[in-house]
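Example 631, ligand magnesium ion.
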Amino acid sequence: MGKINVLGFDVANLIAAGEVVDRPASVVKELLENSIDAEATSVTAEIQSGGVTLIRVTDNGCGMEPDDLPVAILRHATSKIKTARDLSEIGTLGFRGEALAAIASVSKMRIFSKPAANEMGTLLECEAGRVTSLSEVGCATGTTVVVEDLFYSVPARRKFLKRDATEAAAVSAVVERIALSRPDVEIKYISDGEVKFVTTGSGDLKEAVYSVFGRECANRSIRVERTDGGVTVTGFISEPDLYKSNRNMEVFFVNGRLVKSRTIMAAVEQAYRSRIPAEKFPVCVLNVDLNLSAVDVNVHPAKLEVKFSDEKVIFDSVYYAVLSALQSETVRPELKFAGTGADIPCEGSEPASFPPKKESKDDFWIDGEEARRLLNAFVPADTHRTKTEQVKIYDSPPPAKKEAPAPAPAVPEDGGEDRPAITDPGPIDPPEYIILGEAYNCYVIVQFEDRITFVDKHAAHERIIFDELCRNARSAEKNAQLLMTPIVLDVPAWEGETLRDYSDDVRSLGFEFTAKDEGNRTTVKVTAIPEQLDSAEARELFSTLVAKLSDTTASIDSAYAEFFESRLFQSACKAAIKGGRRYGIEHIKWICDRLFVKNPGGSVIRTCPHGRPVAFEIKRSSIDRQFGRLE
Ligand SMILES: Nc1ncnc2c1ncn2[C@@H]1O[C@H](COP(=O)(O)OP(=O)(O)OP(=O)(O)O)[C@@H](O)[C@H]1O
Ligand SMILES: [Mg+2]
């Protein structure tokens, strides 16, 4: 006896529906696309509880005739195409006749609809895909679709939905993108009674970007407009120093259809390469318009992907459109650092004790984010573009002038007599400088005779702590200070175990401690700390280090010493003073004194342990030149 069944209508529908709608966001996308296809000029999308309890999309489009409503929710029922030939030139967002059927089969749905010519509208109600009532109602011209209790008939699917807030975020992302795809349509988005945004519908994309992504993105965007080989690329991209850590704000449309396209994404990112740091992504809203027959939209169940007949043409069109926008006169000039296609020479030798092996010179030069921001504020636009040599990462201090060693900030005096002699680096011998102030509580501005240096105080402190602790660890004698009052930490027993495993290393930094187990906790008493840290910093460093060393999810793929060192530099970051916070001038001076002297190895501090620059400078001659005081 054969074992193959032909599935019943209901099951087949549910399976098909799963392909089209898998979460509230995909329902909202389909409904909005229907409204746009209906030539609405105003659409409101509203959700409650992430769209699980309610989705309502109201438009002022063409509406549906009473006879059409029960048909609209059938599978393969569409007004948008008729024949197979139509499939090769699809100009509407919908074409499968699947969406309403899919949504209807997994929810309780009501549709109110009225074409402009009719006096009365029609209300269709259905549950799990079956029509339960069809009646005449009074309603405005257009269509309102109300979807309640999504996936109530498919508990397995409902179980996989994320928290309401997560679903709501996915819905927002969809509404935002559709709003950006059609700035000529006024789109309002309401979640749990709160209006999240409304676009003007004026047709101006910049206004839509403003409504959806906010003022900064709108103000710092560059217009893209280029036609080449039958492909027109239009939209906005962000100025290069406005970038994001993920691709969430890279939005692409093909002939007005929201798509995910690796080709377009790669072309945009390639054009930005060397303009933004590695692993950072631009903000962009780009529409690629091309002949309908040159793109196949019928390749993805949710219509999210398309296939181009010639991917290379698309890549080139997008790449050159973005590149020329980036190079256009309206773009604020950017500093280019070596290693990112830049032209500033990298001078000087690498710091003796650093960088870790994975760093390269390139890493050092890559992140100019703060540098660029400051520079843009400092040097008038258009002036430093061709004169990048006037700003460079700090790499060689001016000639040193003898000065007494400055004390570490806030280090308790107690225990000083017990300190072993300082083995290294010897007395601090910083050059003469004046601290002019601090920008944004983050960047210290330091004046030397022949230059002004901007210092990222957090990055600098992080590097100093790390270097000095490494030096401690390598030296036979420790620069430690005894504490009058021990630091007491209560850590989980497994961290106590780790501490015992690494006790020699931790002691080599200048820490002294005892550890006592009590049940599943360990009490650690720290009685001496590295001289370079105050007790708050030492507490932070110690506890972070122990936690990092106990992190068993990290694979110990490097040599033991490297492993310890890598954990140490992660911890140095924690102990360092923070950008954005105020600290006393003595802290800042302590950092500057150490930053501006050469390391014992003869090199200077250039990067923080993560490879970011700690300082950059502008030569006085360059400033004089800007003001016309020097030729
Ligand atoms: N908001 C609306 N206003 C007017 N007509 C609509 C609206 N929504 C749906 N319709 C009609 O119902 C039909 C079925 O809609 P449905 O979304 O299921 O399919 P489609 O849009 O044709 O194709 P797809 O499945 O690709 O979305 C549409 O072709 C259209 O004629
Ligand atoms: Mg549709």
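Summary: Residues 329-425, 554-559 have pLDDT under 50 and may be disordered.
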